[in-house]
Specification:
about 500 residues, binds NADP nicotinamide-adenine-dinucleotide phosphate
């Protein structure tokens, strides 16, 4: 069966930086199904050749060493462009004619990819429906929707309703590109394809879990967007909660989209929704010094660029084990990591070592940019009596498998074409995630607490975050990637 990928927002950044290089990369590896064509849609008045020429330059830049003129020339012959505005009905009617012509009436799987600003999602979906483009009489029709999916629970619910008027849930693929990362999928493999971790993956052995998404960059020129969103909408509702779900979920009965997503949703349902007082006690928010002077940011902005949330997953496995989620801009380095902090031994025989929580066993899953896993454990220092030192065993994807790690978008695009939604968020999952984040945002707004802290760019957030953790008898694992970094996001 042939495939057509129709990209709305074809002249934009995501298309040239990620989507086309990913499709080209898969074509080079021979993974793209034969007879796959790509059709771009945006207002810019390109011809097919103009768009191909623009993409030649951008792909040369963003595909890195993988670009090769001969294979690109072949690949680019299956790229087409249709100028159009999502606000204009007739542009969709013309798009339909172009698609029918390109596909010559053959049964085709179409994937509509919304790579444009979220305010256009609703309109684009309605136009696709009105033009008969969701009709499946001549092949499967799917829609991929980029993040952010809504800005709160009400808008996400509304968008789901609009989408479901045109597409059934089976046809909908909501992207969180973190799920396309090999290291995130490897958490499932680590947990469910090994026998040694699962027996200790619970409240009996784990003291707490830290999940950090740190960005080294500040808001740069994205102040206008960022000031309306803030770190909770930008990072917590999607990436951080996805990492939490993958870490905390039960084993699905099989590796199938709905079985996996059923287990993930159960984790969100088990998270205690904090009251305003609990928000004050269990969250921190801060802005980096200089944020208020960034272009596009209100001078009296109350938008946090850093936050911590301590969440409780109230079920048999995790009762009493806090999950600390943390993210910020202008931090010490760029790293995404999941730290499983095990409990201290019940009785310490050796008196000469350091015995505190941060000396207990720890499993560090490094998601990016240095992909791998480290297990920290105590060792006897040779020729030093019974002195102990925390050391580690480490596994690095790069060292073990050589080659480059595929871009998350390669896997996600292939899965959407193949109809595997395991790595995409379901409607109830997105809504449940907003159901946890909304009360925190509301409590910050209505109570004005906790106070807005500040931090120097280049640190791990405000100093108060260290004291706050200290007061709970715990400490942050503040480490820039400890494995060889070899890949970019
Ligand atoms: N960029 C990234 O790396 C990235 C990463 C993750 C998620 N995302 C998400 O992906 C989406 C796109 O982001 P982006 O950075 O690519 O945005 P962008 O660079 O601003 O591109 C927006 C695209 O939408 C098109 N467009 C705007 N108004 C239109 C209209 N009325 N009718 C048809 N096309 C229209 C623009 O083309 P014309 O002006 O030619 O119409 C352009 O192609 C956003 O939801 C973003 O959150 C982006």
């Amino acid at each position: 069966m042939s495939h057509t990928i129709i990209i709305f927002g074809a002249s934009g950044d995501l298309t040239s930086r990620k989507l086309i290089p990913a499709l080209y990369g898969m074509s080079r590896k021979g993974r793209l199904p034969e007879a796959t064509r790509i059709v771009g849609f945006a207002r810019s008045p390109f011809s097919h050749d103009d768009w191909r020429a623009k993409l030649t330059e951008s792909t040369r830049k963003f595909a890195g060493g993988e670009f090769d003129a001969a294979s690109w020339q072949t690949f680019s012959q299956s790229i087409f462009y249709h100028p159009g505005d999502v606000g204009r009905r007739e542009d969709f009617v013309e798009l339909k004619s172009l698609l029918d012509k390109l596909e010559s009436g053959a049964e085709t799987t179409r994937v509509y990819y919304l790579a444009m600003a979220p305010q256009f999602y609703e309109q684009a979906v309605e136009q696709l429906g009105a033009a008969g483009l969701a009709d499946e009489s001549r092949g499967t029709r799917r829609i991929v929707i980029e993040k952010p999916f809504g800005t709160d629970l009400a808008t996400a619910r509304h968008l789901n309703e609009v989408v479901h008027k045109v597409f059934t849930e089976r046809q909908v693929y909501r992207i969180d590109h973190y799920l396309g990362k090999e290291t995130v999928q490897n958490v499932l493999v680590l947990r469910f394809a090994n026998t040694i971790f699962e027996p200790i993956w619970n409240r009996n052995y784990i003291d707490h879990v830290q999940i950090t998404v740190a960005e080294e960059v500040d808001v740069g020129r994205r102040g206008d967007y960022y000031d309306k969103a803030g770190v909770l909408r930008d990072m917590f509702q999607n990436h951080l909660l996805q990492l939490l779900m993958i870490t905390a979920m039960e084993a699905p009965v099989r590796y199938k989209a709905d079985a996996v997503r059923d287990e993930k949703v159960k984790v969100l349902q088990a998270i205690r929704v904090p009251t305003p007082d609990e928000v004050c006690r269990d969250t921190l928010r801060a802005q980096y010094d200089g944020y208020l002077k960034s272009p596009g940011v209100a001078p009296d902005s109350q938008t946090p660029t850093f936050a911590v949330a301590k969440l409780s997953v109230e079920n048999w496995r995790w009762q009493g084990v806090p999950f600390y989620l943390r993210s910020g801009k202008a931090m010490s380095c760029r790293t995404t990591q999941i730290v499983i902090q095990f409990r201290e031994p019940p009785h310490m025989l050796f008196q000469s070592g350091n015995h505190s929580m941060h000396e207990a066993n720890r499993l560090v899953v490094q998601v990016q940019p240095a992909e791998g896993i480290q297990l920290h454990f105590q060792t006897k220092v040779p020729d030093a009596g019974m002195q102990l030192r925390l050391t580690d065993l480490d596994f690095s994807f790069q060292r073990e498998f050589h080659g480059t790690m595929p871009e998350a978008y390669q896997r996600l695009l292939l899965d959407a074409m193949a109809g595997d939604a395991s790595l995409f968020a379901r409607a109830d999952e997105v809504e449940a995630a907003w159901g946890i984040i909304d009360p925190i945002i509301a409590a910050w707004r209505t109570t004005g607490r906790p106070e807005m802290l500040t931090y120097e760019p280049g640190l791990w957030g405000p100093m108060q975050a260290i004291d706050w953790m200290d007061a709970q008898g715990r400490s942050w694992f503040d480490a820039c990637p400890v494995l060889d970094a070899g890949h970019k996001e």
